[in-house]
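Notebook, p. 212. Picked up where the previous page left off. The plan for this session was modest: take the two constructs that came back from the sequencing core last week, fold each one, and keep the raw output in the notebook itself so nobody has to go hunting through shared drives later. Recording the first one now, exactly as returned: residue sequence, then the structure token string.
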Amino acid sequence: MKDSFPDFVDLYGELVPSFDHEWEAIAFYFDYRQTQLEELAQLCHFHNISLDYSEESLYQLESLYFDAFTKQLFAEWKMPIDALEAMLSVYMGEVVLRHHSDADWVVRPYMDSPHQYTLGLRRHNKTWHSTQFCEHLYLEKQDSHPYVSMYQSLMSL
């Protein structure tokens, strides 16, 4: 019976990028973060949202996200929802970094793979090796502020 269900570790592992050298992974993830922030800045400029790395900016982004979902703006933007979720995830990580000197982005090998690396956010002695902190936010109630709550939980550790 177990064989009929996918092994999620293997499925995730197929999505993790491969590199010949660790420095290539570090450069790739640095570029990835910069690209996500640049694309988010362009979108926010259009919607008059200031990305000042404050908690208030997180509320504004959360409102934009839910407006985009309820008003079906993703089709107008020609952007899949997971693309905005990736941008929001990187931005949230950057907000945490700007408010905590003990936080940083880390690139680490994936499991026992000699060539696969993941990006993580480390704070204190805990590391989250997912760059999708905001995946499927639309499943949460907007009134509970799931995006801001996620940020606050990372801040309180």
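Okay, moving on. Second construct, recorded in the same format:
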Amino acid sequence: MANSKVFLLDDEDFAIEGEGPYFVLTTALSDHKLAYRMNTALGINLHRTQEDHPIVKKGNTFLHSTFQWFDKRLERHWVLLSNKGLSPVDPNENSLFSDPLRSNLLPPSEKVDYILNINEYLEQEEINDIRGLLSRVPGVIRVSEYHPATNALKEALHVEIEKPSIDEQS
């Protein structure tokens, strides 16, 4: 009889990752003020990433401000992403009134300022609870759940998670 190997799989092998909900927010708040107010209201700890989320459109790179937090207890990544991105002004351009180019991740008709993604499957009750808490954040005008229509849009909204610094791990 030939030797055969048996491989056992844990429940974690079947976990759904990266398929969490997207929430879109409309607000006049700046990104730092929104992150601070969300941290206070939801008991989370979003912080600005070292690198903004880059998207390339028509040969221009647009940077979207990005905040993230890893919830160690529930093992969830939270990512807050600005819908509006700016293309840095070319320092070689000698125009006094050079404005950076602007681009949105979602169409301007959506009237979305920020996109929040929790990179973990959530039950509908949890989604409703989070949406309710977000709607009570002072300065947030509108919150709704968003479902990307295309894989290209899903890819554009995908943010690589930065590894926490030593200070954040403790």
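Notes on construct two before I forget. Confidence is low (pLDDT under 50) at residues 5-18, 165-170.
Flagging for discussion at group meeting.
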